[in-house]
Amino acid sequence: MALARFTKPVDGTIPVPALLYDDEDLVTSQDEVGIYDGSAKSPLHQTGALTLTSHRLFFISIPTPFDSFSLDLSHVVRTDYYGGLLRSSAKITLHLNVSADDKNDSEGPGEESEWATWECEVCGNRNGPGLSPAKAALCSLCGVPRSLSSSGPSTPKTLPAQVRTSLTSTLLPALPARGTGPLTSTSESGTEVIACPACTFHNHPSLRVCEVCATPLPLPALSIQATRSLTASPAPSAALKSDDVSSIRLSFRKGGDKTFYAALKRTLQGKAWQVAKEASSTSYTTLSTITGGVSGIMSAVQNNAQQRNTSMSTALSDLEALMSQAKHMVTLASELTEQIRVVEAKAKAEGRGSLSDGTEEGEAANFIQTSLAQLGLSMTNAPITQDMVKDERKWMEELTRELAGLLQQGEERFGNNWEGEIILDGSFGVVERKKSSSLMRGRGIVGLDEIWGGWNRARGVALIPPSTFLQALSLLPSYTSPPLLLRTFPSGLSVLHTPRYTHVAFTCRLSSLITLSGPHTTLEVAQEERVTVSLAGEMIAEVEKDGEICRDEVQVDGPFCGGRDVRWWLNVFEDYAWDGQT
Amino acid sequence: MALSTHTTHSGFLLPSIHSAEPFFTQQPNPNTQRIVTEQWSRLILSYARHRNLFSIRVEDAETAGSEWDEILRNERIKRRLLPSHLSHILSEMVAKSQAAYEPPKQTRIVLLYWRLPEEWAEVLHQWVTSTGQLTTILTFYEITDPPVPSPLSGLPLVLLRKAIGILAKTGRAQIISIADGEGARFFAGTGK
């Protein structure tokens, strides 16, 4: 008798997609399925197509379409699978929850309102039909649950349809109380159609008003109830006996059982009917199905705002995580540096000299220091922040000292060479190059962007804005030895450089280079000076501006590419005296 | 890298700067470029005097085969003067009245003043005097293409007119319209 209690009749001549709620999706379907009501075959439902949606299970009977029914998946508490043996086909048993069914019956308005529109008492939005019961119980605009009492007062300005709806909804709660079982109204109206009291037109049982003259129809709830019992169980007495049975079996005559069972399991786990309920009560994200009118626009706006909020908060949480990671790194770095210093002090005390003497410890320490420097994390203590120093001037000085330390730390130890120093390893006789651990990395000229980035990485927290950085740079020469100077090229590129790379020193070197070994291209000069090509280009351009050198430009036409080759000459015109024909 | 002078096929002595590669490049530094332009102007004018050339075109730098090849190209160092550079040099020469755009209102062809029009006027007067043709009427053709080659041979008409105009101002010449064109009569002395 489970069939009669839990299923709702549907018109099998209508294709299933047309029967769906607005927020319901088709999952899968299977032909040639028979239905068992409990353990007995249900005679009317032996050949049909089974369709699974996100909310319901449809059985469309092929020989007799009007015996088709739908079953809310919310009733299903458990499923069993039987693989089939010999001539017995595979079966799925659906165990149905009795209490859920009773509750649903008492939720009269929700069920009825599938086919009716209603007006929200809070915002006055008219909610259309076609939503799943869970969703239809809430206003699509403001999310306020539909209340029964509120429907009444709105009658004066509403259409007859609403009057009818409110009437039925007030009537319905009394229904379960009236009868003990679902079979209370057997054949009160006796027909599947409702005759209009005004024009006598035979309306479909689901209609509230007459299709022809719009006159409210009498007691549609009762007639539906009757129809349900009639279609679902043509033999009420027989059904009564199996009242305690609360399971339905689906028999797959032509296979397809495995895929269907998998889909069913998935859908049951998804609990789309519950999701819909929660979503509509908490947020508006799932309400985008309603797009018409002002309510549609408002919900869309709210939707967007919600999404923006979510993405903002996730993005910021990422940043916070990064900050905390950076803090960890900085602490780790300072700990390592501290340890190295201790070891080094001990080594010195023992008279073994510096750490680069080839011992295992020394190598490890060097490795750590180099990798820290490469990460830009080599520092002796925690970064200075503005709240540690009150005085503005003092703060700037401290900052400059910190920067100077970063820039020149290790330079003394490894000498002030351009590329670090070649150290002979006594024990193995291996020549290796040691890079200095400072930000300058042994170079004489470094772009400001790199220094700023390296400094901030080394600080990790309380990052320095470029403006403060530039202020600190102006104090830098007095804190560094040899002084590091700031130089800005005409192109706007700013660099820090050692005295070796001042304009005058470079001009001298370039002149002597050309004098000694002839004209050079920018690339050759860059190689000679161990700076990047673009930096060399900038420096040469400055010298050219002074008229110290001049250029020889030649169009190179290769087979595949052409270009301009510029070679730099000393200024051959400066002291030229005419020696040609006069 | 010692630069040396070089004598061309036509017997012109090229200056040593002509065998320096940067000489053929337009220098971005204005001071350097000023010197380069000066040297080029001097080279062009002395070569023009040497070959008795009166005009130079920007196109001469583009295509080989013109009478200017000897100075605009240096095959020994594989360099040539680029048209844009030549155009710049010519404009500087016009600005310093070492040349003039001829015809006017274009910048592709210039008339070279390796002698200024005033100097040409003196040369003309001297020639007329020395050949004993004072007070006789001479057609322009007779002046620019005399049977005996003279310093005025091949002188462009524009320059000749200017020279005669200068002489006329001081009363030493008079332009006369004759049947088959124009002519001039020259007078001795500095006034009437």
TrEMBL record, chain A:
<dbReference type="InterPro" id="IPR036443">
    <property type="entry name" value="Znf_RanBP2_sf"/>
</dbReference>
<protein>
    <recommendedName>
        <fullName>Vacuolar protein-sorting-associated protein 36</fullName>
    </recommendedName>
</protein>
<keyword id="KW-0863">Zinc-finger</keyword>
<dbReference type="InterPro" id="IPR040608">
    <property type="entry name" value="Snf8/Vps36"/>
</dbReference>
<dbReference type="Pfam" id="PF11605">
    <property type="entry name" value="Vps36_ESCRT-II"/>
</dbReference>
<dbReference type="GO" id="GO:0008270">
    <property type="term" value="F:zinc ion binding"/>
</dbReference>
<keyword id="KW-0653">Protein transport</keyword>
<keyword id="KW-0862">Zinc</keyword>
<dbReference type="InterPro" id="IPR036390">
    <property type="entry name" value="WH_DNA-bd_sf"/>
</dbReference>
<dbReference type="InterPro" id="IPR011993">
    <property type="entry name" value="PH-like_dom_sf"/>
</dbReference>
<dbReference type="Pfam" id="PF04157">
    <property type="entry name" value="EAP30"/>
</dbReference>
<keyword id="KW-0963">Cytoplasm</keyword>
<dbReference type="InterPro" id="IPR037855">
    <property type="entry name" value="Vps36"/>
</dbReference>
<dbReference type="InterPro" id="IPR001876">
    <property type="entry name" value="Znf_RanBP2"/>
</dbReference>
<keyword id="KW-0967">Endosome</keyword>
<comment type="subunit">
    <text>Component of the endosomal sorting complex required for transport II (ESCRT-II).</text>
</comment>
<dbReference type="GO" id="GO:0000814">
    <property type="term" value="C:ESCRT II complex"/>
</dbReference>
<comment type="similarity">
    <text>Belongs to the VPS36 family.</text>
</comment>
<dbReference type="GO" id="GO:0031902">
    <property type="term" value="C:late endosome membrane"/>
</dbReference>
<keyword id="KW-0813">Transport</keyword>
<dbReference type="GO" id="GO:0032266">
    <property type="term" value="F:phosphatidylinositol-3-phosphate binding"/>
</dbReference>
<dbReference type="GO" id="GO:0043130">
    <property type="term" value="F:ubiquitin binding"/>
</dbReference>
From TrEMBL, chain B:
<dbReference type="InterPro" id="IPR036388">
    <property type="entry name" value="WH-like_DNA-bd_sf"/>
</dbReference>
<dbReference type="GO" id="GO:0042803">
    <property type="term" value="F:protein homodimerization activity"/>
</dbReference>
<comment type="similarity">
    <text>Belongs to the VPS25 family.</text>
</comment>
<dbReference type="InterPro" id="IPR036390">
    <property type="entry name" value="WH_DNA-bd_sf"/>
</dbReference>
<dbReference type="GO" id="GO:0005198">
    <property type="term" value="F:structural molecule activity"/>
</dbReference>
<dbReference type="GO" id="GO:0043328">
    <property type="term" value="P:protein transport to vacuole involved in ubiquitin-dependent protein catabolic process via the multivesicular body sorting pathway"/>
</dbReference>
<dbReference type="InterPro" id="IPR014041">
    <property type="entry name" value="ESCRT-II_cplx_Vps25-sub_N"/>
</dbReference>
<dbReference type="InterPro" id="IPR008570">
    <property type="entry name" value="ESCRT-II_cplx_Vps25-sub"/>
</dbReference>
<dbReference type="GO" id="GO:0000814">
    <property type="term" value="C:ESCRT II complex"/>
</dbReference>
<keyword id="KW-0813">Transport</keyword>
<dbReference type="Pfam" id="PF05871">
    <property type="entry name" value="ESCRT-II"/>
</dbReference>
<keyword id="KW-0653">Protein transport</keyword>
<protein>
    <submittedName>
        <fullName>ESCRT-II complex vps25 subunit</fullName>
    </submittedName>
</protein>
